[in-house]
Amino acid sequence: MSTAPQMIQRFGKMHPVILAYLMAAGDGILNQKEREELLFIGMVIWQIMLEGDRPLSEITETVLEEKEEANFKLLEHLEYESGQDLERIVEKVFSDYNQFYILGYVMENLTKFSEEISVGGESVGRMFIYLKTTIDCFDV
């Protein structure tokens, strides 16, 4: 059984771009607890994706930036279009998403996390985008 530091080290060796992204995401916006949860859920995503049928590709900074930009544009479009809360937006995203089970895990855990420590909607929304970007990078 691996310890958390060993898992982080392994994750960093296999996917340094994603680890750096998750560790830097939300810097100055998310608090320490939120950033720790972001990294934890990101590592769970990685573990789930490792169990898939195909090996995970190397993720470049270019791919990561493209995926993140697409996700922020999607969120802006859906917010503008619907004026609804994050859960309604997520429902729309779920309808045709290739990794909807993993995205469901993310949403469930972000909801629990936000209730436990009273995280604001903006923080949860950003965390959701960062984690969806992580899934999208692995799902190429």
Short description:
The protein is mainly alpha-helical and 140 residues long.
Describe the structure.
With 140 residues, the chain is mostly helical. It has one domain (4-138). It contains 7 helices and no strands. Helix 2 runs antiparallel to helix 3, helix 3 runs antiparallel to helix 6 (100-117) and helix 6 runs antiparallel to helix 7 (121-138).
What tags apply to this protein structure?
140 residues; mainly alpha
SSE order and pairing:
Layout: H1 4-14, H2 16-24, H3 32-50, H4 61-82, H5 86-94, H6 100-117, H7 121-138
Helix pairs in contact: 1-2, 2-3, 3-6, 3-7, 4-7, 6-7
Uncertain stretches: none
State the share of residues found in helices, binned by percent: over 70%
Class from helix and strand fractions = mainly alpha
Domains, number: 1
